[in-house]
Design brief:
The complex is a heterodimer.
Chain A lengths: L1 H18 L4 H10 L6 H7 L34 H15 L35 E12 L5 E9 L2 E7 L1 H8 L7 E9 L7 H5 L9 E9 L10 E2 L9 E7 L4 E3 L1 H5 L37 E3 L3 E13 L4 E5 L10 E6 L28 E3 L18
Antiparallel strand pairs in A: 1-2, 1-12, 2-11, 3-4, 3-6, 4-5, 7-10, 7-12, 8-9, 10-11, 10-13
Chain B lengths: L4 H15 L13 H8 L4 H8 L11 H4 L14 H17 L10 E7 L7 E12 L6 E8 L2 E8 L5 E8 L71 H13 L9 H7 L3 H32 L6
Antiparallel strand pairs in B: 1-2, 1-5, 2-3, 3-4
Chain lengths: 391, 312
């Protein structure tokens, strides 16, 4: 239970800083679980109210100014073709090829000579790392009962562990914010280092990989620490497991109240002029004669980080590193980056040990099949579904 | 054999849903480049398919886009991803290896049997004319229309739904229009087909015939403004239009002038999958598709020898 509380509080705090996620869902869960060991101080910290719809938005400039500058300014140096080819060859020899978009999401190479992780046993308190994926589309699948479900396809694209930050270092930097948790920094999609700044490339010295297009950090318990350079696969997760998928929602720009909040607008006829799509009144009179904070009004819509909690994995394609998640509600457009990790919902966490700290294909007894299906899901190569007549 | 009233009622529900089903195809009288292409081929689609499946190079895959349109992805660039499309095609071929999904067009008369939990015998069979065909990938679907107890019924089927037990084409033919939604406003005899209709025997190498029949619209009210649709399979109905409607129609044609659209290369490019990509896609799947059709055809022949059909 303590681990649950820790995870919840970490998530909340992490959210307030990193993700901007609503907390009310978790405070609701906290009441359900009826925990006794929580002090009033902890409880009050959990019960901080934050609106789900985020009417009062916490917009922050992104990327943050304290982050390392990523992209390099392109200055046209007059490099001869021969020299350019030489540079490319050096990069290729040292790190291997960079990731080609629209290929199998497999990491081309593992920079590790051997796995030197100290292996720990999985406990119910353990929090594993997540992976970075691209949302590559949505298509329907059918259950064995003939029921149609929508699945979102998430491709785990060339993931490597970049760095592990220990809990001690974490506490030194952030105080007690993350408790006894550390960070695993994961990168996706190796790219040509000439595209990035020298400082950004320096982040990848430890892992021995090419600089990555996208990096993310995941809070982990120290027993789930990973060696920098470890490749991560879609099989980090298991079929039937529940995951949280976070991504940036579609950016709609500045929108009116009808699109943004679903207002009805005013009438089309009966003397209404020039206000068919307006919201109408926004405040009362008298003592409270002002516009209340949080009133739904036109403004910027979308482009916010949102997490879908407790989505079920119904199928995994090990050849193309694709995870099929039930539901079509994963935030973001097609080809956007999302992060996937084991769910924090206490009732949907897995009862059995997952691959811990991650899946190592070298250590697998036998190679996995190309497609792993949930037992409730219909495989298209199976015969059609017939219902038996109950007599 | 006519289905029970209860089934008909359920189908009515499906009909009412399908009425409001949004179509991906444009309702406006746009000149479609695919249609033109089809006309130039002279409707000789099947013939070309059979001859060129073995060749498999360059634009030899052109007929595939009419026989297997659902293998082409949605051309909208924001929604495209090569890996997703590839995985989708693999699943489609897997399903096609289990159940025969025959070649059919809008206007063909088809018979579909489906597993249905609520039907007596846990299965339901429906015969009707294909009025619409749409969707791509695993979302591909078609609509069948028939008249049951004097009531028009339309059912939308998903082609790759595993509850479908069998699909067969009773009469393979094409019509003049992209969809036959206007049959809703026609007398019922145009969309009434008996459920015990026998399958027409045809040479698979023959070209698919085009039915040039022109149907007659019922007097108003209609469920759509058919005058804006540039329908080819409908008799002239301008006598039913009011003067102001004809006047407005002129304005409409002027505003939505479709004359220039055939020169709008970007518009065509955005609305279609380029020919190179098409040959890439069909180059992947044509071997398996040819194999599947061969296997299924030989199976059918065997079945026919084993169980000769009764001639009425």
């Amino acid at each position: 239970m303590a681990s649950l509380w820790r995870s919840l509080s970490v998530l909340r705090l992490g959210n307030s800083i990193i993700t901007g996620e609503p907390v009310c869902k978790f405070s609701h869960l906290a009441r359900e679980t009826n925990a006794l060991a929580v002090t009033s101080h902890n409880l009050s910290s959990l019960m901080v109210q934050k609106r789900d719809m985020s009417r009062v938005k916490h917009r922050k400039p992104h990327p943050f100014f304290w982050w390392t500058k990523k992209r390099r300014e392109r200055n046209d140096q007059e490099i001869t073709e021969g020299n350019q080819a030489f540079i490319d060859q050096v990069v290729l020899d040292k790190y291997g090829p960079s990731y080609v978009p629209n290929s199998t999401g497999m990491p081309y190479i593992s920079p590790l000579k051997e796995i030197v992780n100290s292996r720990n046993e999985w406990t119910t308190r353990s929090i594993r790392t997540g992976v970075i994926a691209r949302k590559i589309g949505i298509y329907p699948m059918w259950g064995k009962d003939g029921k149609r479900i929508t699945t979102t396809l998430l491709q785990v694209v060339d993931n490597h562990v970049i760095k592990f930050i220990s809990p001690e270092e974490c506490q030194r930097n952030y105080g007690n914010r993350f408790g006894s948790l550390g960070f695993v920094i994961v990168g996706a999609e190796s790219a040509d280092p000439q595209r990035f700044t020298k400082e950004y490339c320096g982040l990848f010295k430890q892992s021995g990989t090419l600089p990555k297009v996208r990096i993310n950090r995941f809070t982990v318990t120290p027993d789930a620490a990973l060696q920098p350079g470890t490749p991560l696969y879609a099989t980090h997760f298991q079929v039937g497991q529940y995951v949280d998928v976070a991504g940036k929602t579609i950016d709609h720009g500045f929108q009116g109240v009808m699109k943004r909040w679903g207002f009805k607008g005013l009438r089309a006829t009966h003397g209404v002029t020039k206000s068919h799509r307006r919201g109408g009144n926004i405040g009362g009179g008298g003592e409270k004669g002002r516009v209340w904070p949080g009133t739904k009004m036109p403004g910027h819509m979308g482009c916010l980080r949102r997490t879908m909690f407790g989505l079920k994995i119904v199928r995994i394609n090990t050849k193309y590193n694709v995870i099929y998640v039930q539901g079509g509600s994963v935030s973001g457009e097609t080809n956007n980056f999302v992060t996937i990790r084991d769910t924090f919902l206490p009732r949907k966490r897995f009862p059995e040990a997952p691959p811990f700290p991650t899946y190592y294909p070298e250590e697998a007894q036998e190679p996995l099949p190309d497609d792993i299906f949930d037992p409730t899901l219909h495989n298209f190569s199976e015969p059609s579904i017939y219902y038996e007549d109950k007599v | 054999m006519w289905p029970a009233n209860r089934v008909a009622n359920r189908q009515l529900l499906a009909f009412s849903r399908s009425i409001w089903k949004s179509s991906t195809q444009s309702c406006l009288p746009n000149p479609s480049p695919q249609k033109d292409e089809e006309d130039r081929n002279g409707g000789d689609v099947k013939n070309v398919t059979v001859q060129k499946v073995s060749g498999g190079q360059g634009d030899n895959f052109a007929p595939f886009r009419f026989v297997y349109p659902e293998f082409l992805p949605d051309p909208r660039i924001d929604w495209r991803n090569r890996i997703r499309e590839k995985l989708e095609r693999v699943d489609m071929l897997k399903r096609r290896s289990v159940v025969e999904i025959p070649e059919f067009y809008v206007g063909s008369i088809m018979k579909v049997s489906v597993s249905d939990l609520n039907a007596p015998g846990k299965a339901n069979t429906f015969v009707g004319i294909c009025t619409e065909r749409g969707g791509c990938g695993l979302r591909a679907n078609f609509v069948l229309r028939n008249v049951i107890d004097g009531q028009g019924v339309e059912i939308s089927y998903e082609m790759y739904n595993p509850t479908i037990q069998s699909i067969s084409v009773l009469r393979l033919e094409k019509r003049l229009d992209e969809n036959l939604r206007y049959l809703r406003d026609c007398p019922i005899e145009y969309s009434a087909f008996p459920f015990d209709m026998p399958q027409e025997i045809r040479n698979p190498d023959d070209p698919v015939p085009v039915n040039t029949m022109k149907v007659k619209l019922k007097p108003k009210p209609w469920c759509a403004k058919w005058q804006l649709w540039d329908l080819k399979g409908v008799e002239d109905f301008s006598d039913q239009l009011e003067e102001w409607q004809l006047k407005k129609l002129k304005t409409y044609n002027r505003i939505n002038n479709t004359e220039h659209e055939k020169y709008d290369l970007m518009k065509i490019y955005r609305k279609t999958i380029p020919a190179e990509e098409q040959s890439e896609i069909f180059g992947e799947v044509h071997h398996q598709l040819a194999k599947l059709t061969q296997v299924l055809r030989s199976q059918k022949r065997k079945r026919q020898f084993a169980k000769p059909q009764k001639q009425a």
